[in-house]
Amino acid sequence: MNLEAILKEEFGYDTFRIGQKELIEKVLSGEKAMGIMPTGGGKSICYQLPATVLPGVTLVVSPLISLMKDQVDSLNEVGIPATFLNSTVEWHDREERMRYIETGAVKLLFVAPEKIVNDEFYSWLSQLDISLIAIDEAHVLSSWGHDFRSSYLEMIPSLKKLPGNPAWLALTATATQQVQDDLAGILDIPEQNIVKTGFKRSNLTLKIEHGVDKLKFVSNYLQSHAKESGIIYAGRREDVDNLYNYFQSKGVRIGRYHAGLSDEERHQQQEDFLYDRTDVIVATNAFGMGINKTNVRYVLHYSIPGTIENYYQEVGRAGRDGLPAEAVLLYAPADLNLHRFFIDKSLGDDDYKLSLKNKLFKMSQYAETESCLMKFILDYFGEENTEPCGKCSNCLDDREIVDITSDAQKALSCVVRMDQKYGKKMVTRVLVGKDDVANDWHHFEKLSTFGIFKDITLKQTSRLLDFLTANGFLKSSGGKYPILLLSDKGLDVLKGKTSVVRRKEEKVVAESKSIVADGSFDEALFEQLRKLRLNLAREQGIAPFMIFSDKTLKNMCQSMPTNSEEFLAVSGVGKVKLEQYGEKFISKIEQYQKELKV
């Protein structure tokens, strides 16, 4: 079986991405497998291609109800029959779809996990010829995951009892080693069938901006990226509404999304963004999991997410087409307080709250580190011996580096003199010499380090401790009340064996540079092809990226195809796309070339 030929004919791609073919071959052999691939890494091909080859139907279980319609529309657009069944489908439509599925005409059926545990639905499902079970966003099955949903575990015993011994494929983009091990145990996946392609997104540039005027930064950024599609994540509904109203008044084509809006408005705002009727959407973290928009060029975080997993999933919404994209985190330490409040108010048990606090601490370390940002994330997910990316804001930071060994030794010494029994807040107040921590039973005022930083602020001292922790000179005990501990690296500093350097703090402004600026393709033709794509999409009532991605359009601008054979050679063009759109796009390219010669 020539899998490359099938890939080109059905999906328009010439070659597989790393890990895709290996997973597909395991699935076609009827095995149980798991793929750990980054967001935008091409996970869906790993079950979509086998579905075109295997007999019967491929069952895709996904917690992302809002994404199902987009996935189904995209598959039907390339001539692969697919449908979905979830709570959004009315009963009369559901009955009609079920009868259609029974005829064997459907190759992929998308369902929500809640459907599986419904006895009536499961009885119907067990009568189908199911060749493959694909579980998307599989991390929700693990209690160690960042988005654990215990109810989803209930469907696994039922799925294992389905007749026909179908192949299994679990897929996720954000799984630590602990989560991977948990999933392998739950789904009975042998170690040799776990395919990890790495979490690195080479086309994604990560940036962190400290202490900026957030509204001014975003204003400058949107102005300098006016023709690009982007997402702004904010922590609170109030922030979303304020940003939406402000930028709408400035003439920005912007939408908003949060749980306080009606279902109808949320749906409309998401559709407007998907269909390029708006350029930007500002949203809480409830947005993004249910979209597959390929041409998002940037993600701005107005406030810090609560976990590395959530953060990396959210920034993963950018650059899904493989073209350059960037993610900018606007960091203010005070934003962490909102997460702490939500954690304390959550309904989870103490262990659950503790795990969230530990994850939040790791996220704060990421925001404070001066090492490579991509390397920090890859280390978190267990990838060893990774090299600096060379393009994140830390790797490219050219601010003056100053030696702060003396201040570091003072701070580390204070932790030791306080017997390594206290948290950051108490250590900070002792270093600054606050009256409220003096003259009580602790007798902190007798320490030689009491008030040693009296000439600098609490905020500056707190950030120094954050810096020392993020860069491994201090470590946190974790737990409900984390305390600061001296690390081996910090001990070397106290002994004078290691020096500590830090970059000077300076004001930062948004760069006025378009992410997609690239002289390697004809930008004027690209704009004409974008307009053609948009008009075709509106006629059909689908999102523009479902016709062709930006990457495919740019490939057309480079190769200038003038016949069917040349058009089919464009990356992202398969036989169905050639039949549907080849004539129109070739005609537009020929017209453009004639106008150039006039």
TrEMBL record:
EC number(s) reported in the record: 5.6.2.4
GO MF, one annotated term: hydrolase activity
Every Helicase C-terminal domain range: 214-360
HRDC domain span: 519-598
GO CC terms of this entry: bacterial nucleoid; cytoplasm; replisome
UniProt record, GO biological process: DNA recombination; DNA repair; DNA replication; SOS response
Swiss-Prot/TrEMBL keywords: ATP-binding, DNA damage, DNA recombination, DNA repair, DNA-binding, Helicase, Hydrolase, Isomerase, Metal-binding, Nucleotide-binding, Zinc
Span of domain Helicase ATP-binding: 24-193
Family label: Belongs to the helicase family. RecQ subfamily.
Organism expressing this protein natively: Companilactobacillus paralimentarius DSM 13238 = JCM 10415
Domain of life: Bacteria
Protein's recorded name: DNA helicase RecQ
PANTHER family (alphabetical): ATP-DEPENDENT DNA HELICASE Q1 (PTHR13710:SF105), DNA HELICASE RECQ FAMILY MEMBER (PTHR13710)
Nucleotide-binding found in the keyword field: yes
Catalytic activity entry: Couples ATP hydrolysis with the unwinding of duplex DNA by translocating in the 3'-5' direction
Gene3D superfamilies assigned to the protein according to its UniProt record, in alphabetical order: HRDC domain, P-loop containing nucleotide triphosphate hydrolases, Winged helix-like DNA-binding domain superfamily/Winged helix DNA-binding domain
